[in-house]
Amino acid sequence: MKRFFGLVLTVILSMAATSVMAQRKLPAKAYLTSAKIDVIEDRPQEAIALLDSLFMNYGPVSEGLALMGQIMVDLVSAASTAQAKAPHVEKMVAYFDSLRMCCSNEKIDSKFRKDCDKLVGVADSTEVQFWREFYNSGLEHLTSLQEFSGELSSAQDSETVAYYTKAIDGKADTCMAYMSLALKIDSNDYRPLVAIGSILDGQKKYADAIPWFQKGLAHTEDSSSLLLSLAYDFINLNQYCEAIPYFEHYFRLNPSDLPNANNLTICYIRCEKDKEAVATYRKMLEADSNHSGALLGIANFYRRDAGELVKKAKSLNEQKKEAESRATRERANLMFDTAVQYYERHIKAYPDSLAGYDESGLINFILGKYDKAALAFKKLTELQPDKVDSWISLGDSYFSLNDFNNAITGYEKAVALNPDKKILWERLSFLYLETGQTGKKANADQEIRRLQN
């Protein structure tokens, strides 16, 4: 009975004290003592009201700010979900930050800055503890999310798909909520930022993921993975030009990662930055003199530019500017020669290089080097015996060399694969006539008539 009476009396006295304190200014210690009683008796709102009065009357008081922070700690712990914890976490951080500022402000009376080292130490450790709790909770949900994603990928029926899709969305939201709580405590730690970005990436929300990765990039010393994440997010959005700065930065940090350097050249080409692409190819060759993409990339640029010069030379010739036309054509031939050199380097490094044989064969044919063209196309027919165009090119090369017998072999292989190419039968008819193969000529003429009808 005495215990019950004592408890009631304490409550009555506290309520009376609260009412009186709301009406007049009391000593700072009175506010603090009464607030502590309210905290012990699980009356946080009354304690908050008293501490608000303390701050209103006396300004920042270290013990009061620490107590207010602890009240928020209790409210955070009592809340059952990340969403419910959020407003209390914000206030906890705000009060602990105010505590640190109060303790470091020498203009505030020393009697209101008591036990600062102890109080700030408790605040620091409390925030570290909560940060770990929130981040680890987020990681747990992220792990579950990844497991559910694996289950979803193997799900067969629509009901299972719907279940895992809903579960994944829920896990994603919860994970992001916990990571957001961690960020409220320390907004400069890149790990929660990266986690949120990764979740959005997994949901293919690339535009939403990018700002999180960008924030994380500003706070991490190991930036390589984030630079790639940003670059590929922009690529997934078909924004190749925006991906370039991140690939460039990454390549400066990782000059030996040639696959991603090659992806940088793709972005350059799509954004019409040809000089930058070629310069990157050359850097790649410095790291690996036989890099396939770099050799073909440079060769293709020379071949393309040579082709443009050929068109320009033709235009100049039509304008009766013969001297300029010849000079332009000579420049084109030099570029063609350089392209062939790179294609041949590729062939030497990769003996089964289809692109190397095809392109070098075509260029040599254009330059009138039919013997070299024939060698390239012969190798191509060995590598791709079922490709009609390779046999045609081989036949054309031998035809240009007046090697009619070998030309016939090439064209015959071509019509065997595609008997409906009339021009090939016409070429064969001529060659059969020249080589005295009357029976074959008659058959070729018959095929010509068939295709004419």
Short description:
The chain is an all-alpha fold. The protein is 82% helix and 0% strand.
Provide an overview of this structure.
The chain has helices at 2-23, 28-40, 44-58, 62-78, 82-104, 116-154, 158-185, 190-202, 206-217, 224-236, 240-253, 258-270, 274-287, 292-318, 322-349, 354-366, 370-383, 388-400, 404-417, 422-434, 438-452. With 453 residues, it is an all-alpha fold. The chain has a domain at 389-453: Tetratricopeptide repeat domain (Serine Threonine Protein Phosphatase 5, Tetratricopeptide repeat, Alpha Horseshoe), CATH 1.25.40.10.
From the alpha carbons, calculate the radius of gyration and give it in angstroms: 39 Å
Low-confidence stretches: 1-22
CATH superfamily caption of the domain at 389-453: Tetratricopeptide repeat domain
| Count of strand segments | 0
- CATH third-level topology of the domain at 389-453: Serine Threonine Protein Phosphatase 5, Tetratricopeptide repeat
Mean pLDDT: 92
Fraction of residues in β-strands:
under 5%
Question: In angstroms, what separates the terminal alpha carbons?
Answer: 119 Å
- CATH class (first level) name of the domain at 389-453: Mainly Alpha
Secondary-structure topology with pairs:
Blueprint: H1 2-23, H2 28-40, H3 44-58, H4 62-78, H5 82-104, H6 116-154, H7 158-185, H8 190-202, H9 206-217, H10 224-236, H11 240-253, H12 258-270, H13 274-287, H14 292-318, H15 322-349, H16 354-366, H17 370-383, H18 388-400, H19 404-417, H20 422-434, H21 438-452
